[in-house]
């Protein structure tokens, strides 16, 4: 049997809710299987609505009683909510419901994690707590009373009263239900405080389970840095007396910006040098900032409806990226972000899941927390800022906060503040929000009589539901170099608006070498006929660090694709160019490490596919190994010296500078281990006093002799640390040799510590396999089968994480007919599972196309 096609919701059908809310009171009486929730909601007719239909969302609730103006009513109740007759005047609605947090494995609504109660309400989880208009445009102030025996009882806003077995909270800022949160547990606090620029004292806490106290200090410092930064850069101050963060082990996403009570996946907040890598530290800092920044971009100004999700997410990602580039290295941050954008968003935009940054319809909103909404949403803001300039961006943002504070806004509202600030017409620019697909930008050039002409042609391939595309506004940052390597024209931004457009640069003595799309000024795919000699030239001379790195990356990609399509070997052009950068001590070590890193197998597969070839995962794997070995032999003489030069004396610090040194040292170690049988890696593993270096060494040894001895030692050392054990699971499936990957994964799913209901553990283990391209795509289909089996099992417990992980199949049409048939069979099997969730049904249906 096939599951019925679930109902679609359309942006075009938006209607305001017929009632407004003047205040909400909630009362929780906690019990694992029978929590009682009493609500009292003051409604009044909404003058902007002509309907008086009273429907409240509610799912998996046991209704005990309902009252209107104190009188018991018998509302009509379905699986989705409650309908009642109400007066055409202000009225009070009261309800009492019973819910079961302990059996809530979907991790939406009120659930339990490691003995504590916690909530997740975005996007539509509040309806699993009580009957309510669970939509972001209904904003209200909340008073919450919690009764429970736990030592810590938290909700949003400011604490009003605490006593034996109860606590009361009041949130004075009107908010939509998705920002509601409640936590109850025997937790310990890592306390601190912050004084805002206007002198307000704010109490800060990070709450964790006993035993994790030692992993809070970095997160707390990151929080204070974020608070200062938002005051300095955006003029935004915090607006409550208290700001709490709680770490939970079972969480579907990274973290959640609930008003005054952020809830974090413990992997995104807990860190100590021994247990977290440099990358973890940087990510934690970025996510803390992201959630904190939501207080203004998301909470004070929220979204009118879920189609506007990018209004808060795109902007908040953009803000957290700005923050990280201010805290660390701007160049390295931009390169990292573009690598992620291409790996996740370009992949999405070029496959069956492509959708506009502001989608026009959805079945399950949880399926739209995507790289497109988040990361392309952030790129759009970067383009806007580049087009209007920094000063206008600042003015537009001030106007945005002034005009829409306390409101649920739209993308139209957002663009309007830029139009009103600058007088620009942004109707063509708005296409970035409505058109899916990554534009291809073809470049051609001419030089005559001292004038250099660059001609661009833009084209966006069709995407599901959108066959025709209109030309967009594309800001193209360009600089020109002389053949001797000097910059003859500094960066300028060309504003492309036509399908085809030329730009002239006159007064040049010689034909210049162009550096196009500096800083990756637009999320497009640049297509330009060029030589590896020119790429090597740009890698050596470009003053724009992004394009300098990009030239090296293009050179490596060209080499690898030719190895696969023309049976070429690794050429000296690549090796010489890379080794120059590798040896150049004047460059930031983090940058040198990025130049050393090879493109991912997935990137190569997509590139081959775009060029009309059928990628073969195992040959791609071999080619990448071959290039790594060539790098190693070519640099043989300098590797030990670089390794030694990157040594850091003194205690570990997660700052950008030492982290960059460790990154380069790790890249060098990986090459060295291909030559020395793993001696250096074994020594590093034995001596490591921090997770970064311990994990780097373990990764090298896995490739050499499967690291048996070190894996066992690592497990013994870390068996009681959940987050570190996630790394242990992940490394083994992610780095297993192609022929061993499925078997290794299967064995790990039988390990006593494989808790499949914990999303972190599930993702670490199965996600490691799906990211191991050659292993996942084993020609016998065993990788597909194993992953499909687990997705089917997980779907019954946790639809959201299942649906998200089903995207591992989204690029199935790239591969050969046999693999396509195998994948299609697995996708069909998933789709035919009885009672498959709406989440997974929508995703798999779209992937099948
Ligand atoms: N709003 C969260 C963020 O981006 C993400 C999230 C969405 C978390 C849905 C949980 C559920 O910061
Ligand atoms: Zn967010």
From TrEMBL:
Residue span(s) of domain Peptidase M1 alanyl aminopeptidase C-terminal: 533-848
Catalytic activity: Release of an N-terminal amino acid, Xaa-|-Yaa- from a peptide, amide or arylamide. Xaa is preferably Ala, but may be most amino acids including Pro (slow action). When a terminal hydrophobic residue is followed by a prolyl residue, the two may be released as an intact Xaa-Pro dipeptide
Residue span(s) of domain Aminopeptidase N-like N-terminal: 26-179
Alphabetical list of Pfam families matching this protein: DUF3458, DUF3458_C, Peptidase_M1, Peptidase_M1_N
Domain named Peptidase M1 alanyl aminopeptidase Ig-like fold: residues: 437-528
Keyword line: Aminopeptidase, Hydrolase, Metal-binding, Metalloprotease, Protease, Zinc
Broad class of enzyme this protein falls into: hydrolase
Domain Peptidase M1 membrane alanine aminopeptidase: 218-429
InterPro entries noted in UniProt: Aminopeptidase_N-like_N (IPR045357), Aminopeptidase_N-like_N_sf (IPR042097), PepN_Ig-like_sf (IPR038438), Peptidase_M1 (IPR001930), Peptidase_M1_dom (IPR014782), Peptidase_M1_pepN (IPR012779), Peptidase_M1_pepN_C (IPR024601), Peptidase_M1_pepN_C_sf (IPR037144)
EC number, as in UniProt: 3.4.11.2
An annotated GO BP: proteolysis
Names of required cofactors: Zn(2+)
GO molecular function: alanyl aminopeptidase activity; metallopeptidase activity; zinc ion binding
Recorded family membership: Belongs to the peptidase M1 family.
PANTHER family: PUROMYCIN-SENSITIVE AMINOPEPTIDASE (PTHR46322:SF1)
Protein name per the record: Aminopeptidase N
